Amino acid sequence: MYLPKKNTIIYRFFTWYIKFIIKKDFTSFKHDSVSFQRDSSILIIANHFSWWDGFFIFYLNKIVFKKEFHVLVNAENYHKVSFLKYLGAFATSSGGKDVLNTLSYAGELLSNPNNLVLVFPQGKLHSNHAQEINFEKGVMQMINSSNKKINIIFAATFIDYFSSRKPSVFMYLHNWDTEEYISLQLLKSAYNKHYNTSLVKQTQIKE
The domain 8-203: what is its CATH number? Predict the structure, then answer.
């Protein structure tokens, strides 16, 4: 398992840099207001369609949730984008038992109310025009490995240009009131309901 690494100087630089490039490359960054229990950790489940996605949530965390940021990435990105590990990225180093250990580690993170963990359930990049978000099984392993005192936040993000030269970011957020029993199918269904509702809202925007 590849773990996050701490370096205060690198972390502060990229905190500034991510804010800078979002403001530089986008006309606006819009998101819903969302209520959450501040004494519980946050699991953000988000669609994955671009290089920007993790940075969007990192920035959102800085301005809204203000928790310790963590994100599950694949081993290739952990090494290829070397600074990610200083921003809270972790990854599996191999298959089998290491995958289970990594998911258990994510559950331990979620048992700490100071933490936020970002997961892209699709696993890989998909078009921003996707009609349904598929879920890998690992999400439930994370939840079941935690103390289950979690805010589960659904994030559906879309990008549109409209009349501007630069695009705008639209992030729709929802704090899911979990059932006593959570299954992968229930979680997937609830997220996709939010995603589809958000997609309808996005298509109704007029500028």
Answer: 3.40.1130.10
